[in-house]
Specification:
9 strands; 9-stranded mixed sheet; alpha/beta; 216 residues
């Protein structure tokens, strides 16, 4: 059984509640959204990449020898075999994280997998594509991320948190400034002013390396 893969690499986890830790990344091909600020457009085409077996991917993760594996994209949940990859990585003892754009049902993934659900804000151009039922499927260990460009996005995120009572399902709520659109300081000011229960998330890999560097 194979998955279409754009790249695999080990790097510093730049986002999530595990930011700063070593992580092995598996980036899948193909995405059904086209966000305005996308920084991995090279992964959007489902026909690009290499077919790699699940057995080989687990072997690569073991060879790298780091405890966390993140499966990302593109949109990884478009390839349904990803659930089998998650199961086999869990059986091998890894902490498994899957970052999804929120448009696909997250309950296809096994229990224990950390689902990072990116709820798209208006500036993405894709906020109407979210699968709202995913909020009911969140586990306490899951994470919800809002990528924020401006105050309109911030207010949208606060409204979604309140309307769907996300804080009652998980405390891992991330507010991430769009790199080059809103400064971390300005987003922090909005969070402080509005007493947001979220966590400020910076894409630290973009501060370590050039923002357009691949494989980091």
């Amino acid at each position: 059984m194979k998955l279409k893969i754009v790249e695999t690499f080990t790097s510093i986890q730049g986002e999530s509640t595990h930011a700063g830790k070593l992580c092995f990344f598996i980036r899948l091909s193909g995405c059904n959204l086209n966000c305005s600020y996308c920084d991995t457009k090279y992964a959007r085409n489902p026909d690009l990449g290499t077919d790699i077996s699940i057995l080989k991917l687990v072997s690569l993760a073991k060879k790298e020898g780091v405890p966390i594996v993140e499966i990302t994209g593109g949109e990884p949940l478009l390839q349904h075999q990803v659930s089998i990859l998650c199961e086999q990585l869990q059986e091998a003892g890894f902490i498994v994280m899957v970052e999804t754009n929120g448009s696909q049902p997250i309950d296809m993934l096994p229990d224990g997998v950390i689902r990072i659900v990116d709820c798209k804000c208006p500036s993405s151009g894709e906020s109407d594509k979210m699968l709202i039922s995913n909020f009911d499927k969140l586990k306490p260990y899951d994470e919800v991320k809002f990528v924020i460009s401006d105050e309109k996005d911030f207010n949208f995120a606060m409204d979604k948190m309140n309307k769907y009572q996300i804080t009652k399902k998980t405390r891992n709520i991330l507010f991430a400034p769009v790199f080059g659109k809103i400064t971390p300081a300005d987003l922090a000011k909005l969070m402080i002013k509005n007493k947001s229960p979220s966590r400020l998330q910076l894409q630290i890999h973009k501060y370590i390396w050039h923002p357009e560097t691949k494989g980091v």
